[in-house]
Amino acid sequence: MKKDLLTLRDLSADDCEALFRRSFELKKRHAAAISDQTLQGKTLGLIFDKPSTRTRVSFEAAMVQLGGVPLFMNAQDTQLIRNEPIADTARVLSRYMDGLVVRTYSQDLLEELGAASSIPIINGLTDLYHPCQVLSDLMTILEIRKNLEGVKIVWVGDGNNVCHSWLNAAAILPLNLVIACPEGYQPDEAILEAAVKDSQGSVVVLSDPREAVRDADVIYTDVWASMGHESEHALRKNVFKPYQVSQGLVALAKQDVVVMHCLPAHRGEEIAADVLEGTNSIVWDQAENKMHMHKAILERFISGGFFVKGD
Question: Which end of the chain is more exposed for a tag (fewer CB within 10 A), N or C?
């Protein structure tokens, strides 16, 4: 039976642990120049409605390194642009491919693809969620901290799609998650309420970033105007100015705090240049780990490599 990864709520804690173990193993093997061909003869489709550097390239590289073939399709070049029913596209691509990564605006479109396809659908980003990003981020935190329990993770900035996936993660893993957003820019109320209700650790939302980062182990930020909100950029620069991850803000956290950003970064806006390039920053390790985590995700969802919730 095929499985989809549309949100992190599709996974259990055991699933996440299996993905973490395998991603670390794959990273170690890659560093030792050991070739893995676990997806030889398999084909991965990538349909992208939105621009991408890291998500696209890391999935393509992951598939190639596992012996498979990635096929990239700009959504504007498919029959979807001519209003072909989503279900028809899903059925046809299911006959050609072994899995599909989709980066689009609508979570509903992704859900419709998942319902109609017979191959795994993997969320490469929607306006609502970015689950694969947060899985690779969690891998990176584990690489540094060796454990997730008791680690204080502070999100500073917009309550966007990445923030929503952090909330989903907090519902299945023992995270100590603190979110600092300006009034009017908090995460979706229903997603937040569900995370608080199901939290395996703690979930707190504050408006004061200075209060939020005290004793933080991890400070995480993202752009102030996500794709689709570019017209609000000037307004948001003014609203979010107190939420910049600066050296002053970092100094309020633990001395060994790590700073994360899913990139692309706007130096001098959501993060100061000297923080992004500083000794506390782990953004480049974070970016690399997308490829290793994506390998683990593709192995599991295409070949059924290990236990997944509901099996």
Answer: N
